[in-house]
Amino acid sequence: MIKNKRSIVLILFDIILINLAMFASYYLRFDGAIPIEYKTTYIQTVCIGTFVYIGVFIFFGLYKKLWQYASIGELLSVVYAVTVGTGIIVTIIYFSAPMRLAHTVAVLLWFLTIFLIGGSRFAWRILQENHVFNSPEPGSKSRVLIVGAGDAGVMVAREFKKRFFREGRPVGFIDDDSHKQRLEVHGIPVLGRCQDIPRIVNNHNIDQIILAIPSASGDAIREIVEICEQTSAELKIMPGVFDVLSGTVDTKKIRKVQVEDLLGREPVKVNLEEVSGYLTGETVVVTGAGGSIGSEICRQIIKFNPAKLVVVGQGENNIFDIEQELRSENPKLNIETEILDIKDQTKVNLVFSRHKPGVVFHAAAHKHVPLMEKNPEEALKNNIVGTRNLAEAADAVKVKTFVLISTDKAVNPTSIMGATKRVAEMIIQSIDKRSTTKFVAVRFGNVLGSRGSVIPTFKKQIEKGGPVTVTHPDMVRFFMTIPEAAQLVVQAGAIAKGGEIFILDMGRPVKIMDLAKDLIRLSGYKPGVDIPIRITGMRPGEKLYEELLTAEEGTSATKHQRIFVAKPNTIDEEKLEKLVYAIRENGSFFTREQVVAHLQYIVPEFRRQALKNAVGLQ
Predict the structure, then answer these.
(1) Nearest Cα to 191, choosing from 177, 178, 175, 206?
(2) CA-closest candidate to residue 237, choices 257, 220, 267, 261
């Protein structure tokens, strides 16, 4: 039903155009004089045709469209509607009127109706666009250069135009495609290639450069950024590729270039059917839910409508924050919180008995390498005993899938933190052999933006004017974004069979020194000039490079192109049991030397020289 005034006005306007088309079709066919024998047919055509056309237009939804954004799709809707309407009119007139509708009249009626109805819609769009140019608002004086004259760049230009140029006025495009040079897109010229950016910025007084090439690799963006940094123009980047595909580009979302853009990681594709198959309708527990990874796993999980999400963590403030966020995102979801220290075996068993989860994501861990070197006994208790407590509780209540979040630092570990995470992997692989629960671990590297990670640290140092501290000029690390890591963790749970250590494809390792320089440049400074970089030396437990596999493991592919599975190593069950028992009995009183000895006892590749008074397990 048509209810709003806008649609009623449009219908009245269409009635006038339809009648004009009908009169013109008869007038043109009969050279200005409609024969007497056709007058009855003409009157019936007008009366019947008007109602038929309006009814068909309503059916095809022509009065529900915003014609100021009319495009080819809307024009086709008009063509389809007029074609159907004309067919109905010809059929009715054939059986009811004294004279059938002449073929030429029918063709002219079809053509003229499309011309007038479609033309009126596009005339409205043209008037709207002209209104932009004639707007009394002066708009922004900021002159914008758009890098990329493809679909994304055109969308950016249109968005500026729709907003009356309040955020800036596009002056030209930059594109390396030779076929686009010296051409215009929506009246905006393609001024040159990327290498020409400094000259064009200078000649055209450009204030702002927008990168509108969402499909470009990180290396390509890095190269363009370095060229743009030779200019004084402000550099920004448009939203991701999915915003472009959905047509939801917004100039307010165009932001400054970030380090993540330079990594150029392909978007993670989650198999929705697989993931929903094991999460939908389940009770899901997430430990460490207040942390960077744990909280993002919660955000991913709520998309799949679990029966209940149990948010577990030790810090009450972080758990309160993520609970409030999740409730605002999905008010109907059953969310429960548990303040829990995973080292407390009794409380862990109580929580699992209370909720009887179907899926567990274990993200709670002590992760900071230097801090755990200073507090090694806490790493033992939390990362090893805490994992064992959770795994035993999961086995007792017959959890279906248990996913441990591990780290690349567990491979040939040189740090206490890394060694404890390797033991945690052994624990879940050991219990998997005798349990109906599918226990798996997911191993990945550094996560961009997580608390205490390198990028937030660098940003704080830059805000203070430096220096930016790098431990070693040749240090490299693997990096992932937080949402990317969380999505792959959730996906790994879907393909788990039990006992696997999944390796996430981290792409190429990145030099920390390059990361520091990139971040300084993106902050508008020159590395080593405006912001100094200081080499501080490697900290205890650090390696120059991280590995995702031991030499013995190797990998095999899974059906997900970004996830691989490591071949399991042999685990000494007796040694593992002795280690867990020793930590439970006396872990708080271990000296640093004892911690090292205990870890070397179970993880031979933990190449750390034990001190003379270290006590081994005999």
Answers:
(1) 175
(2) 257
Q: How far is CA 572 from CA 520, 601, 604, 606, in A?
A: 48, 10, 11, 15
Catalytic residues: 409
Closest CA to 427 of 409, 396, 406: 406
Mapping DSSP to helix (H, G, I), strand (E, B) and coil, where does residue 273 land? helix
Residues in Cβ contact with 509 at an 8 Å cutoff, skipping those fewer than 6 apart: 476, 477, 478, 545, 546
The reply to whether the predicted model has a pTM over 0.70 is no
Tell me which range, 91-100, 221-230, 340-349, is most confidently predicted by mean pLDDT.
340-349
Structure tokens at 92: 């009715």
Distance CA 574, CA 513 (A): 44
CB 493 within 8 A of CB 403: yes
Count of CB atoms situated within 10 Å of the CB of 97: 17
- Would the CA dihedral through 70, 76, 80, 82 be positive or negative? positive
Query: Residue 543 in contact with residue 414, Cβ under 8 Å?
Result: yes
Between β-strands 476-477 and 510-511, what pairing exists: parallel, antiparallel or unpaired? Answer: antiparallel
pLDDT band for position 269 (cuts 50, 70, 90): low
- Which of 175-184, 379-388, 457-466, 601-610 shows the lowest per-residue confidence on average (mean pLDDT)? 601-610
Tokens for 616?
């081994």
Q: How many residues does the chain have?
A: 618
What DSSP designation does 375 have?
A: S
Cα gap 160→169, rounded to integer Å = 7
Please tell me whether the peptide bond between 357 and the residue prior to it is cis, using omega within 30 degrees of 0: no
C-alpha separations of 592 from 268, 368, 370, 580, 586 in Å: 41, 17, 13, 17, 13
The residue with greater pLDDT, 446 or 412, is: 412
pLDDT level of residue 125 (50, 70, 90 thresholds): low
- Region 130-138: mean pLDDT is 47
Q: Which helix (H) or strand (E) holds 458?
A: helix 454-463
Q: State pLDDT tens for residues 228-248.
A: 888 888 888 875 543 443 444
| 553 CB neighbour count, 10 Å cutoff | 17
311 sits in which H/E element = strand 308-313
Q: What residues contact residue 327 under an 8 Å CB cut-off, 6+ apart?
A: 333, 335
